Every structure is written in C-alpha cells, then in structure tokens.
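I have been asked to look over a protein record a colleague put together. Alongside the sequence sits a line of tokens, each denoting a local backbone shape. I have pasted the whole thing underneath without changing anything:
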Amino acid sequence: MCKSSLNKQVELLGKEFDTTKSGKCFVIDYKNSSNVLVAFYEPLCFVKTTYSLLRRGKVKNPLMPHLLGVGLFGIGKYGGKKDNKVYRLWSNMLVRAYDHKFHKKQESYKDVTVCKEWLNFQNFAEWYYSQKHFNTKDDKGRSYQLDKDILIKGNKIYSPETCCFVPHEINSLLLLRKRVRGKYPIGVSYSKQNHKFDMCLTHLGQKLSRSFHDTPEEAFQAYKEAKELCIKEVANKWKDKIDDKVYQSLLNYEVSIED
C-alpha cells in the first residue's frame, strides 16, 4: 500500500458516512479509492464500494428493502446486465402485489402477496434460472409469462410452489375479467334482440362457440362445457412445450359459475 493510501486508511477507518437510502455506514477497511469496505448497522451488512460513491452517499445496503418498501436486492451472484430481464420480472411482480397505484387500475391484484423468500431478488433469480421454460418463447416470439394461478386456481400468492411459466395463449385463456362482466355468469349476457341468454366463447379474438338459452344457468352450463373443452385442446396443443404439472392442471381445470 502506497503512503497516500496508508494515510487515507488511517483517516477513514471507523469513520461514519450517511447514505441517501440506507442510513449510516462506517469504514472498516480501505485498500485504495476503488476498494473500500464498509459496514451498515441495521440490517448488519458488509459492502465493498468506492470512495467516490461513499462520499456521495450512494452506497446501498442490499439487505434493506428498496422496492415498494418490501423488495430487497440481497447478497448473491445475480445482478449483472445478463440478469436485467429477471430483475424486471421480479420488479413487476412486486408492483402487482404491493403498488397501490397499480391496484387502482387492476383491482383483482389487491389481495395478492409475494412469499417472504421471493422478496429477496437473489432467491427469485435462483428459482427463475432453475425453471425449464424460463427463457422459452412461443410461436410468435413472445417470452413465456409468469403465472401464479394455473397450478392452484384462485391462488393469490407468488411463490415457488404456485408459479410457473406458460405461453401467452395459455395465460390469456384463463383470465377472468370480473370487472367488465356484468351481473350474469362468466360467458353469459342477455340478448334483447332474441330475448334469450347469450353464451359466447371467444379465444384470441376468434368466436369459437355461441348459443342462446332460456336461463342464465343453462347458458353458463353450455359455456362451461365449451370452455373446458377449449382448455383441453389448448393444453394438448402445447403439451410438449409446457411443464407436465401445468399440462395436468389444464386437463383438470373446472370452470365455475363463481369465476
């Protein structure tokens, strides 16, 4: 160590610095201006940084929640440029669960949470890269989507046990859109022209089935049968390109009048 670095080390060892987002830290080792080791008080954490970042208060405690007050970066191997995609996916997941502004637009996410393990980005990234279809694309070049309620219908928790990656066609097939449904069961509306209850099943913008019935219950039953058949057909279409547990969940999926 050169004389100037030695003098700087003597000057800085034990000195406290304020940070903009992570409270106070103090220097516990100084090699040179590009290699400074600091410790945060709470949560206790050791971080290697530069003197420039330290002086400007830009050092961050990776164990302190920084995203929506719940998500923390964590300590681990993930976080480089190659991990930008998984970081965006993690961030968007937390937004859906904990951003009140988002909930005003998407009320169905108000009761959604993320398991404690996944509040740490490192843990989510580890799971992400362990999944067979984390980087798979569909026939239109779209990345598979993270889904939380195909394996467990009605699930409200993002977790390793409940989530999977599926193509857009499957994800969109099971969207419930209760907000725009109206007073009749899913797939049912009233036709003033025919004075009947209209059952209409569409998929990817195409009308697959339509019929008219005397009661909303009869119309729903027709919709249920058509929808479950459609789900099985889509499952078989993607059988070799989705996890077996996803395939089995689709085969067993039941449309409910409460959907």
Helices lie at 3-12, 51-55, 84-98, 100-105, 121-130, 168-173, 216-237, 244-251. The mean pLDDT is 93. DSSP finds eight helices and eleven strands in the chain.
